[in-house]
Structure formats: structure tokens, C-alpha cells
Amino acid sequence: MRRFASIIAAACLLLVTAPCFSEIIFTANMNNASEFPATVPTLVGGAPRPASFGTATFVLNDAMTAMTMTASVSNIDFTGNQTADTNDNLTIAHIHASPTASLTTTAGVVWGFIGTPFNDNNPQDVVVTPFVSGVGGTVTAKWDAPEGNNTTLTAQLNNILTGHAYINFHTTQFGGGEIRGFLTAVPEPSSLAALGFGAVALLARRRAKR
To answer: Where does residue 42 rank: exposed (0-12), middle (13-18), buried (19+ CB within 10 A)?
Structure first.
């Protein structure tokens, strides 16, 4: 109990005295095994196709009013013409989140940036760039404060900060998602690790009220 009280006290002190929480960085490693259930990509005829995978980096600004994203995905067809098969065609991509999201559960869409629902629209920031050679592409986007799929960034901060949000790329073969990866905070600044996610969530809620 005393330890918890000291954590909260430290968090409150940071709120008053330190802009040391400049920005919070998250990473996500996307793969087939992280889907629930896990996916095994195949061609239309049933033969194996290369495993799909990707990485993403997210930066939540100091005010916690916007989160930028850069993602790179391999072995998912971004144009419909990168391979002759159709199973690997990219259809939609989103951020999913809920308080119960885990490796063995799924969650609803809270922000869509490719396909439907499309929520990167206030303003529209998404840029999709297929690979010049090979199969896949990159995506940059920004989740702004007014955006969300019947929600907002502010409403989802606690889920994001506590590891209950994931990025999901869907394909023709796997309409429920072919690869996904949970947003994981990079332990910088060092005070993030010292405070723990509970205190960071408290910071998020108080900053949101501000």
C-alpha cells in the first residue's frame, strides 16, 4: 500500500513539475501467430504462401492529443497486383482496443486507417506506399483527437497505455485479421518504468481532463 501511494505521489509530482514526459513511443511486432486464432497463410489452391509480418512504431505526443504511426508490412499484397494470388490481398487495417484485449481475445475497431471504417479523416493524414519491389508496403498515419470509430483517442488512452490495444491488417483470406501486434510502450523516458503503467494511465486521464 505504501509503495502504491509513493507511485501515485511521484506521478502527481511529475504532473506539476516536469514536462519530462515529452512523448511516449510504442512498438508493435505483427505476425500470424499473434492473431486469435493464429493464421496460416495459403494460396487459393491451398498451397503454403510466405508468412506475413510487419512492424509499427507509434508516437503519442506530450499533450496526448495525437498519435502518429509508421508501419511496414511484408507478404501482404498492397495493390492486388504484387502477386498473382488473391488470398494475400490487403482489404482493411485498424487499431483495435478494449480493457480485455489480450493474446487470446479480440477487440472492436477503435480507429481505422485503411478501408472501412476509415477514421483518419480530421484531417486525413494516411499515406499508403506499396513496395517498389517485393510484396507489401508502408503506411504512415496520425490519430488525431477528434477521430475514432464511435470513440476518441482520449477515451482509448488507458487501453493503449496498459497494453490492451493492437494493430491489425486484414486480407481476403483472413477477413478477421491476418497479422496483428500489440502496442508496447518503449521504456523511455526512464520514469515510465519507475512509475509503472498504472501511474502512467493516471497521468493520461489527468492530462485528458486538462
So the answer is: middle
pTM: 0.82
* d(C-alpha 179, C-alpha 149), whole Å: 20
In terms of domains, do 70 and 143 share one? yes
* Enclosing domain of residue 113: 23-187
Judge if 117 and 173 occupy the same domain.
yes
| Long-range contact pairs involving 149-152 (C-beta distance under 8 Å, separation at least 24) | 149/94, 149/108, 149/109, 149/110, 149/111, 149/112, 149/117, 149/119, 151/110, 151/111
Instruction: For 30-76, write each residue's pLDDT tens digit.
Output: 999 999 999 999 999 999 999 999 999 999 999 999 999 999 999 99
